[in-house]
Amino acid sequence: MATPFNSAQIRQSNLRTLLLAVRDKGPVSKPELQAYTQLSWGAVSLLTGDLERMGYIVPLGKRGGAVGRKASEYVINTSDNFAIGIELHALGIRLVVTDLLGKPQKQFFQHILQMDYEGVTDVLFELTDSALKSMENRRIVGIGIAAQGVVDYETKTSLYFPRVRGWENVPLGKLFEERYNIKTLVMHDPNCILDAEKHFGTSGLGKYKNAALLRIDKGIGMAMMIDGQVNILPSGAEIGHICVNYNGPRCVCGNYGCLSEYASLDGIVRRYYEAVGNGPQSGTEAPPADHHFIATRAQAGDQLCRSLFDMMGSYLGVALSTVCNLFPLEQIVLYGEATDYKNLFDQQLRQSLYDHLYLKREIQIRYSTLNVQAPAVGAALSVCDSFLRKSSFPRQEKRNTEPAERFRQAFDLRAGYAGKKRSVGQGYFCNDRCGGLVGIVLKHTMA
Ligand SMILES: [Zn+2]
User: Fold this and answer.
1) 81-193 and 234-368, same CATH topology
2) CA–centroid distance, residue 242 to ligand 1 (Å)
3) Distance from the CA of 376 to the center of ligand 1, in angstroms?
C-alpha cells in the first residue's frame, strides 16, 4: 500500500517543482508558473514567496501588456550560490566557478607537470583551494569533476586515468568531501560535455531524446543519451576501442585495429610515422610531426596526409554506424580539438556512416561550438541540477497572520457576518503581505 505524503513532504515537493520551473522557464511570472506546474494559484503564490525569502529566486522586474496589471517575473538567484566544475585531463586541469545556471564566473587552469598520483592530486587541490579562497564566504553548493578515462559515478571513483602512473581506483569524491566538506560528483568527461551542449550549445541537442556526443582529441570518448537518459555506466560508451579493422595496428589498450588508432589525433600521428617508415625518434632531418603538422600538410594538398584524414572519416563512419545500428540515434555531435580539421574528414564520415547503416535514415551530424570550458561547465551544471533537485528546504516559518486577521474582520463586518459561525475548511484569501492563504470563508453557516 502506498504511503500517503504528509503536508510537509508535499510542500517540499511543490517547492522543488516551482524552483526547477523557474530555472527552466525563467524569467517567468506566477500565472505562467501556475500554467506550467499545474499547481493551484494559492500554492504558487505562497511558495514563490517562500522561495524568494529563502534566497533561491529573485524578482527580475515586471512585464505585462497594455491592459491589466503587470506580472512580476522570477529568475533563479545567481548571486548567492555557486558551483565548482573541474576538468581532470592529462593535458591540464581546468576549474570553473559557475552560478546556479552554470554560467562561468571565474576560471583557473594549470598544467600537470608530474604525471603520477601526487602530481595530479596536488594540482587538483591547489586549484580548488585557490577557487574557494577567491569566493571568500560565498556559498559553494557542490563540486563536479569531469574525469577522462574510466569513472564509477556511483562510488565517485576515477578507476583509470590515462598517462598517469600509479592512478588506479582513486576515490576522488571521498577525497574532496573529506577535505572540503562539500558534496562532490565524479563523472565521465563526455557526459559533462553533452550536458553543456544541451544547455549552451548551438547544435540543438536538447531537442533530441536519442543522441551521442563524441570528444575527439588525443583520444576518443563518447556520451550517449537514450530516451533522454544519459548513460552513466563505467564501461558504457568506449567507442574509441571498437575494433574497426582486426588486422590493424596494435592499440594502447592491447587490442588491434581500434577506432582510436585511426581517428584520434595521436592515432593519426602514429599512422603518419608508420606510413613514412620511421618513428619520431629516428629522423633528425625533419621536425617531429604532430597533428598540427600533418593537418597543415593535408590542407596544403599532401596526398599521404590527406589520406590519413580520409581514413579517419571513413573509420569514424564505420564505428558510428555500428552504434546507430544498435541504438535509434537521431543526432551525433562532435567536440574536441580534432573538429578544427573537420573539413578534412567530414565528407568521408557522412558517406561512410550512411553506407554502413542497416536502416537507412538521416542522422544529424553537428560540430559543437562550445569552447574549452565545456567539460568543467558541464560538471558544474550537474552539481547545480543535483542541488536544485535535492534541496531540503527549511520548515515553514510561522507566518504573520495579523494583517490577514484584520482583513477577515473587515470582511466579516462589511458582509454582516461578524460573530457568525463559519463552515469548516472555508476561509479567506488575503492579498495583504501576510503571505497569501489564510483560510478563505466563501460561505457562512448561520448560528
Ligand atoms: Zn583499443
Assistant:
1) yes
2) 7
3) 26
